[in-house]
Write a structure and sequence with these properties.
It contains 6 helices and 9 strands, in the order H-E-E-E-H-H-E-H-E-H-E-E-E-H-E. By secondary structure, it is α/β, with parallel strands linked by helices.
Length: about 180
């Protein structure tokens, strides 16, 4: 499976730019990346959109808002520091994550955002939509759609975090 991540990021940025630009007025929005790779993607999107990451990108750790620790086999989450360098009240925010799967991470993110303020609008941008929703959540902006089985493991690697860009999908062997 070959996915050009740079092209997918450029497509995602193009969708965001197109929807948030009307005539000479550009709509103001902030990007909130979900730790870890969603934040990396948000910074890449900010760069592609010509935004200053320091002013337009926040990071949100959703670990404490998740409802599936026992299912995922996690005793204690590894916490990151959420960082919102802007006030969220009455702002247009775009949540950013690398892979959309069941929707549970996004549900947790929505809960987390409300602890920081009440945005006027929240949208979702994902690099990869692989389907298999468990909750009624849909992305507003999608870089690529990937056909997968529910048991597959999909991982996006970014050079900033992992030293290289890649997308891997591992088929799980059914016993």
């Amino acid at each position: 499976m070959e996915v050009n991540l740079d092209a997918a990021v450029a497509d995602l940025a193009g969708q965001i730019r197109e929807r948030n630009h009307s005539g000479s007025d550009e709509q103001k929005f902030f990007l909130i990346g979900l730790y870890t790779r969603g934040l990396t993607l948000a910074k890449r999107l900010a760069d592609a959109l010509g935004l200053e990451p320091e002013d337009s990108v926040g990071g949100l750790d959703v670990s404490l808002y998740r409802d599936d620790f026992d299912i995922r086999g996690l005793d204690m989450p590894r916490l990151q520091t959420s960082d919102m360098p802007f006030d969220l009240d009455e702002q247009h925010v775009i949540l950013v994550d690398e892979v959309l799967f069941t929707g549970r991470t996004i549900r947790a993110a929505l809960d987390g955002i409300m602890d920081y303020g009440r945005p006027s609008k929240i949208e979702l941008a994902v690099l990869i939509d692989r389907g298999h929703r468990e909750l009624p959540i849909a992305a507003d902006y999608i870089g690529r759609t990937l056909k997968s089985e529910k048991t597959d493991y999909v991982r996006v690697n970014f050079r900033e975090d992992d030293g290289h860009d890649s997308l891997t999908m591992e088929k799980q062997i059914k016993s």
